[in-house]
């Protein structure tokens, strides 16, 4: 792959904004991608992630802000923007976009052909790219004879054949069923890391983003609500909105008073000291996140919280208890499930012990 200047970011987006017919779709997005780093843009439909990717690709111009690729200014709000062909990026699409009438080799060589590279060199570079993705013996095959995973690798070979400074992935696995998507996400992540690609990967699938990316940017309402490694997103969500989107656990609405969080007429009452998030010296209405990783079964009389079992799922070496908190504390929102060494009956009331160091606390306005 092409050597990059370690001092230059693969991508720098500064205060990128975009509006359509007066409606703001992106609002002041900042993003920096280091050489060889993979960042996933994760969010619900309409959050702006695809619009941001299209601005990076040169298919849209930003209304405001600046964009640099490899240290070179490529777009500026209200000014000129370099066209897609001048940016030299690689791109992998949802449906792979392979030409059915071209051989695998010619599909991969197509970007080089568009750049006027001589046929002999195109052939050699296409075969080298196929070898990099583990398809060295497939050059003369037709795309229609390949499996979905093989077609995916052909699309990746085409994206890297011109040694681009940045590769963009536009939900490349979204059209596949979940089982195939999960296996191909592992393979895609392995290939991206082995090739050392600087990549922006757009997806609405949380598991896919966490499998592939070094850092995940959670996008909500046209902004990056939080960008962190997957483990940090779960351990330290920056806001209630991020915790809700990631479905980390149950969120309680209550209040912080006299150094304790209380809600639901005493359904939950825990000391605020040691909780993550909001300072313990504050007081007032608050949200408390109870992650699924913070709960364990306990005697109903001794647990911090009580819940009703909705379903007991056998998982071979343990049970997973799906819990309902709604009839125990009316102010609770969200779903909890916790592992258990013993089965429990549907409808049974159980106690839950909480690992307080994993709880997160925010003021209601957060």
Characterize the structure shown.
- By secondary structure, this protein is an alpha+beta fold.
- It folds into 2 domains: about 10-235, Rossmann fold (3-Layer(aba) Sandwich), CATH 3.40.50.300; about 245-365, no CATH class.
- About 25% of the residues lie in helices and about 35% in strands.
- Strands 11, 12, 13, 14, 15, 19 and 22 form a 7-stranded mixed beta sheet that branches. The chain has a 6-stranded mixed beta sheet with strand order 6-7-8-3-9-10, with helices on both faces.
Count of domains: 2
CATH class of the largest domain: Alpha Beta
Distance N terminus to C terminus? Answer: 44 Å
Instruction: Specify the biggest β-sheet.
Output: 7 strands, mixed
What is the rounded Rg?
A: 24 Å
Number of helices: 9
In CATH, the architecture of the largest domain is 3-Layer(aba) Sandwich
What coarse outline follows from CA principal-axis ratios?
Answer: globular
The pLDDT mean sits at 87
| SS-based class | alpha+beta
CATH names the topology of the largest domain as: Rossmann fold
* Fourth-tier CATH superfamily name of the largest domain: P-loop containing nucleotide triphosphate hydrolases
The count of β-strands is: 22
Poorly predicted regions: 1-5
**Strand percentage:** 25-35%
Helix content: 10-25%
């Amino acid at each position: 792959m092409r050597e990059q200047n370690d001092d230059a970011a693969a991508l720098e987006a500064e205060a990128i904004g975009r509006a359509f017919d007066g409606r703001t779709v992106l609002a002041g997005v900042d993003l920096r991608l280091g050489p060889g780093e993979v960042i996933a843009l994760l969010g619900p439909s309409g959050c702006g992630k695809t619009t941001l990717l299209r601005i990076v690709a040169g298919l849209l111009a930003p209304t405001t802000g600046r964009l640099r690729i490899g240290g070179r200014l490529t777009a500026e709000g209200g000014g000129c923007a370099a066209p897609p062909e001048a940016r030299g990026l690689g791109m992998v699409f949802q449906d792979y976009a392979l030409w059915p009438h071209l051989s695998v080799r010619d599909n991969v060589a197509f970007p080089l052909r568009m750049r006027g590279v001589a046929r002999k060199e195109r052939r050699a570079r296409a075969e080298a790219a196929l070898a990099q993705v583990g398809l060295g013996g497939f050059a003369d095959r037709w795309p229609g004879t390949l499996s979905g995973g093989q077609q995916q690798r052909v699309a990746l070979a085409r994206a890297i054949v011109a040694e681009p400074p940045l590769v963009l992935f536009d939900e490349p696995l979204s059209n596949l069923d979940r089982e195939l998507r999960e296996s191909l996400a592992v393979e895609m992540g392995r290939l991206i890391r082995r090739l050392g690609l600087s990549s922006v990967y757009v997806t609405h699938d949380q598991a896919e983003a966490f499998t592939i990316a070094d850092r995940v940017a959670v996008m909500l309402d046209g902004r990056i609500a939080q960008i962190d490694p997957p483990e940090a997103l779960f351990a330290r969500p920056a806001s209630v909105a991020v915790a809700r989107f990631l479905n980390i656990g149950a969120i309680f609405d209550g209040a912080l008073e006299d150094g304790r969080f209380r809600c639901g007429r005493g359904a939950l009452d825990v000391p605020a000291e040691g909780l993550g998030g909001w300072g313990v010296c504050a007081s007032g209405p608050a949200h408390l996140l109870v992650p699924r990783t913070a709960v364990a079964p306990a005697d109903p009389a001794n647990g911090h919280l009580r819940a009703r079992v909705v379903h007991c799922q056998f998982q071979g070496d343990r049970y997973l208890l799906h819990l309902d908190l709604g009839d125990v504390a009316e102010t609770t929102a969200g779903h909890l499930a916790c592992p258990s060494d013993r089965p429990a009956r549907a409808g049974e009331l159980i106690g839950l012990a909480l690992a307080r160091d994993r709880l997160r606390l925010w003021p209601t306005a957060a």
